[in-house]
Design a protein that fits this description.
Layout lengths: L8 H6 L2 E7 L16 H10 L5 E7 L5 H11 L7 E5 L2 H4 L14 H18 L2 E5 L9 H8 L17 H15 L2 E3 L1 H9 L20 H19 L17 H13 L2
Helix pairs in contact: 2-9, 3-5, 5-7, 9-10
Length: about 270
């Protein structure tokens, strides 16, 4: 797309914050679970309103896509909205091995994944948009089909290990952290936050993932994603004394409260 998408400063300050949520099925409108889950882009305006920020959020999620497809649809699905801020969440599909199709390597190499993230970030930054990069959420073995496929294809992902499904995703999550640091953009480390939730007393990461799927965040998981993201956007937009620090774990201190609320919601059901 030729030309800059930058908007005058006065216009940016007067209008609602324009946000595009750019990702795959963990971002896209839920039209497949039968549960009509409110995804984090749908929840985000209300969460930001509670922080004193008026925002208009466009959902540019598209299921079963990688950062390669993201590059191809960046102009149409993201830049066309001239966003002030873009949230980027990819990684599960990039790192996935289509063993059921005879593949033994991830859909995209780690180098391709990193390069694509850099391209997205640099293109959007050049437009004047801020970027929040989120690491992919961790997974657990749950879907019988996936388990059977990888049992029949040994040496790829260990179905006997609780976190065997994450063996490659862990590496891609670290790549996202590294790219965020190199490109000096905000990071919301969902991968680490979900695992930290799992380590809490009386909690399980499965509380946050779709039952029988183990890959996509459920309604509770989506609420946690939204709260972590909203806290980071609010911190970046309107820094306050109580919101100055980012923990060494890479996500905002308020994520502790968000995780506690998610746990309380689980306990109340």
């Amino acid at each position: 797309m030729s030309g800059s998408r930058k908007k005058p400063t006065a216009e940016r300050e007067a209008a609602p914050l324009v946000i595009v949520a750019f990702g795959a099925s963990s971002t896209a409108v839920d039209d497949w679970t039968g549960q009509s889950i409110a995804m984090y882009p749908e929840l985000l305006p209300g969460a930001l309103e509670a922080c004193g920020i008026t925002a208009r959020v466009h959902n540019a999620g598209l299921g079963d896509t990688t950062t390669l497809e993201a590059r191809e649809r960046l102009d149409r699905d993201v830049r066309a909205f001239a966003p002030d801020l873009v949230v980027i969440l990819f990684g599960i599909n990039d790192s996935w091995i289509d063993a059921d199709k005879g593949r033994r390597e991830p859909r995209l190499t780690r180098t391709e994944y990193r390069d694509n993230l850099r391209y997205l970030i640099r293109t959007l930054n050049a437009d004047g948009a801020q970027v929040v990069l989120m690491t992919p959420t961790p997974m657990r073995w749950s879907d019988p089909f996936r388990i059977e496929v990888f049992e029949k294809n040994p040496g790829l992902l260990d179905t006997r290990a609780e976190r065997g499904i994450d063996a490659l995703l862990d590496l891609y999550a670290q790549d996202a952290r590294d790219v965020a640091r190199e490109e000096a953009v905000s990071l919301v480390d969902l991968h680490r936050a979900f695992e930290d939730y799992d380590s809490g007393p009386g909690q399980s990461i499965r509380d946050l993932l779709l039952e029988g799927d183990g890959v996509h965040p459920n309604a509770r998981g989506q609420r946690l994603v939204c709260e972590l993201l909203a806290a980071e956007i609010a911190r970046r937009r309107r820094p306050a004394p109580e919101a100055q620090g980012v923990t060494s774990k890479g996500y905002h201190e308020s994520s502790r409260n968000a995780r506690q609320r998610a746990h309380n919601g689980a306990a109340g059901r």
